[in-house]
Amino acid sequence: MQRDEVLVIVPPNSNTVITGRLLTVTRPEEHSDWSDFLCLGALSLVSALKENAALKPLYVDGTVVALDDVLRYITDNAGRILAVCLGVLTANYEAGLLIARHAKDADPRITTVVGNDHFSALPRTCMDAAPCLDYGFVGNEVVGPFTRLIAALRERAEVDPAAYPGLVHRDGGGVRVTAPYREPVFANYDYTLVDHGFPQTPLYTKHFQTRIAPRIRELLGRSVTAGVPVEIGRGCVKFAGDDACSFCSIQPGHLWRNQLSPAQAWSALEAAWTSGHDYLYLTADELPLTFATLLSGMSRDVPGWWSALSPEERPVLVGYGRADGIADARRTALLTSLGVRQIMIGMDAGTPLSLAAMNKPVGGRRRDVLAEAERLYRLNSDAITVARDHGLLIRAGFVVGHLGMTKELLAENVERILALITEGGRSGVFSAVDVEVLSPQPGARDYTYLTSPAAARQAADRLGLSVADDRTLTEVARTWLRRDVVSPEDAMRDYTRALMPDLTFDDLAGARAAIRAHAKRCGVVIGE
Predict the structure, then answer these.
(1) Which member of 36, 294, 414, 484 has the greatest number of CB atoms within 10 A?
(2) B12-binding domain: which residues (predicted)?
């Protein structure tokens, strides 16, 4: 039997399929967005593979398809499966390993390939710890090398690792990583492929119409039926100086910013619209700051298909931003002129010292970081006012906890967060609020603090903050260093013990609960 099937799988959240995990602040039912939209990264790989007539690529999303059904499919079709490929984040890596082991048990000749942020942050650790993984890819610019690798496997050709930028493989000397290279943002999606293996579009649509559609009708008076992510660019203004926020675990890969041309961006929006999606979720980080040139170009060259639609007929666009970007009325006017009706902002809601500890200010290392952080906080209020004046909704995100946080800092941060929620709720600008305890994930600066006592102490000393004693720091670091499986809540608790010794995890969980309760009292929805 010829092996031609290639499964590109998004594993389910590990907490939903592996028992015994702590779920104090990481309850799956509180994080439902994943099952409202297809996974664009997986669809890009499947769409690229479809160009090879010798292959049968299958898109599988474990957030909507039951794990037992996925495993059963692998068992029943093992003889014709060429490769099982997994896109893993920290939250679903352990479930991804479960699938990879199952594939190898079903037929050792199945090749397993892994990628995405968690693996990109820990490629050698993951390959050393998991023999069930044959190959991996690091970074984002991997569509070309990945499709060429799968083609070589299909033809049973010898794999020369140097020919596949971003490839992670084993040789006699250990784990090796081929340096990545630049490639353009992929945009040639085939949305029909979502349902070739499992009927997943009806599941996305059902979830979307249950959760998001009623909320958009309530807030905007618009009827939307189906949502989809659209990638017009990737990157973040903070990646330009390798200066990401402390909790950010995104792995930008070879490029700090990569984007389509204005014409290509409009084509990507049109393809999503004509495929039946009227709620387009722009995945690019910090749109008004990182992609101002792209957005300006799109504004200067609006295509006929968009102009022919009335404002009420056009798809609803949502995206990401920073408060300092939205506080600029010209940038916000540009967003709304392009159809963006909701922006998701990680609010800069803490004290200056807290914002500095989370590395929130742009360029703060070159200026007075505390003064810049205080300015950031003040811009939250300006952003709320500007958004209100331009008819833009804000989905506000807040993080509780940071390196060296004390009881006093926690209390002041909560006070500031509650004040912003009151303001956003009273003005009708906040469409929803997300509140999370800081989660140190591989690839993030906070995970470096968790695993390196020297880095933690140096960062704390720089801001006049305190961390635990050397014995505790060393004990915690040994727990997580060179560990491939990172259970989010266990890591949160150890982070609190080692890096916020003045607090308990229950203090943070209680603050989160208080903020959520206040948002509800202000009439602001939690989550959706």
Answers:
(1) 36
(2) 19-160
DSSP 338-367: TTEEEEEEE---S-HHHHHHTT-STTGGGS
CA atoms of 361 and 247, how far apart (whole Å): 13
CB 334 within 8 A of CB 295: yes
- Predicted confidence pLDDT, tens digits, the chain (528 residues): 789 999 999 999 998 888 866 566 666 555 555 568 999 999 999 999 999 999 999 999 999 999 999 999 999 999 999 999 999 999 999 999 999 999 999 999 999 999 999 999 999 999 999 999 999 999 989 999 999 999 999 999 999 999 999 999 999 889 999 999 999 999 999 999 999 999 999 999 999 999 899 989 999 999 999 999 999 999 999 998 889 999 999 988 778 999 999 999 999 999 999 999 999 999 998 999 999 999 999 999 999 999 999 999 999 999 999 999 999 999 999 999 999 999 999 998 889 999 999 999 986 555 688 888 889 899 999 999 999 999 999 999 999 999 999 999 999 999 999 999 999 999 999 999 999 999 999 999 999 999 999 999 999 999 999 999 999 999 999 999 999 999 989 999 999 999 999 999 999 999 999 999 999 999 998 875
Distance, CA of 110 to chain centre: 29
Instruction: Please identify which residue in the block is written with the tokens 């963006």.
Output: 340
Beta strands in 96-209 (DSSP E): 111-115, 135-137, 167-171, 174-177
pTM > 0.85? yes
Q: What 8-state DSSP symbol labels residue 291?
A: S
CA–CA–CA angle 315, 434, 346 (5° rounding): 80
Q: How far apart are CA 237 and CA 233, in angstroms?
A: 12
* Gap between the Cα atoms of 478 and 22, Å rounded: 21
Cα 512 to chain centroid, rounded: 21
d(CA 68, CA 218): 37
Whole-angstrom CA distances from 82 to 79, 111, 395 are 8, 6, 42
> With b meaning 16 or more CB within 10 Å and e meaning fewer, what string describes 179-202?
ebeebebbbebbbebbebbbebbe
Hey, what domains does the chain have and what are their CATH numbers?
Answer: 5-178 (3.40.50.2300)
